[in-house]
Every structure is written in C-alpha cells, then in structure tokens.
TrEMBL record:
This is ClpX-type ZB domain-containing protein. Gene3D superfamilies: ClpX chaperone, C4-type zinc finger domain. SUPFAM superfamilies: Glucocorticoid receptor-like (DNA-binding domain). Residues 1-51 form the ClpX-type ZB domain. Zn(2+) binds at C10, C13, C32, C35. Keywords: Chaperone, Metal-binding, Zinc. One of its GO terms (biological process) is protein folding. The lineage of its organism: Bacteria, Bacillati, Actinomycetota, Actinomycetes, Streptosporangiales.
Amino acid sequence: MPDWKENLRCSFCHKKSGEVEKLVAGPGVHICNECIGLCGEILEQERHAASTEPRLPVWETMSEEQILDHLPKIAAVQAQVDDNLRDWVGHLRGRDVSWERIGASLGMTRQSAWERFRSET
C-alpha cells in the first residue's frame, strides 16, 4: 500500500485505513464502512422515532471531559482536510493554473491563495 494511503483516516471515528475494511472518500474527508453502518442505524432509528422533541447540539449531551477528549479528533480532521486542499492546489499549480484562478475558486485573493498554499521548498 502506498504511504499516503496508510495515513488516511476516517474523518468521523479517526481510525486508520488499515483498521477498517473500506474508506470512502469525499471532498477532503473520508468515512469508513463502520461509520457508514452506524449512520444507517441512526437513520433507521430516526425513521421509527415518534419523538418531536427538538434536537440539542451534540455537545449539550456531553460532559466537559468528553468535549475536551473530542477536540483533538476535530483538529486532526481539520489538518487532514487542509492537507488534502494543499494537495489539490499543488496539482493545479503543476498544471500551471494561475494563483488568481485558484484564489477566485476559493473565494480569496490571488495574494491570499499564494500566501496560504505556496510551496516552502
């Protein structure tokens, strides 16, 4: 398996690609077969739920310790998305796409795109 595949993780449970059966890719994120299965179970429960109570944000049901334990997972997903975006921008630069076009696509100026994504090497 190529090195980059070994570094892929599920954006939801944060398991490595080698720890799950399959990872499905989205725009800068991945979801594993286990989380997909859990999503299916949640959706099925929702279909059968008779409750009309409003949903609380997930952090309202968590203790402070649980929230603190969850923060590094969110940060890791953000880093994964940032790395993926950097790879896509690098690929565009390899095709000689201008910083102006890249910036416009991302809703930022050419200068901002260059400052954020320029290669440091």
